[in-house]
Write the structure tokens for this entry.
Amino acid sequence: MSDTLELHEDVEVANELKFVRFQLGDEHFAFSVDSVTGIIKWREVTPLPNVEDHLLGLGNLRGRTLPVTDLRLKMGIESPVVKEDGLVIVTEDNHNSVGLLVDHVIEVLTVNENDIQENTVDISNDIQGYVTGIVNVKDVLISILDLEKLVEVAA
């Protein structure tokens, strides 16, 4: 029998997650960078008849046609972005591409998974169904969005 006692500490290694952080009005949002295929300047789209207001129309990206939605309108955030100043985040999920019009793309943000809080009580009802968590970065609350749910209703 050994006189040495070995201690093994369980060290929890948190996953680092990457998000595209963007702004709609004064609010900050992010979603996983994994589904983002590009970020482009706003270009005019071909309007579609009889669709919800948030669906701006069909855009063309490198020969591919994709629906473009205004995230402000979709999420009930007042005063739509001046389109000429906006950026379109192009996403792909299950081979479906969608463009999401936002005010500003701020950064690709790396977040420790343990820093994401699941409490979304203070989130407005219009967006609560899309928010999976909140992270505080330098005293700015960033709502983490479920891109799959956004794309589901945006397309």
Q: What stands out?
A: The first strand starts at residue 16 and ends at 24. The longest helix spans residues 147-154. The chain has one domain: 16-154.
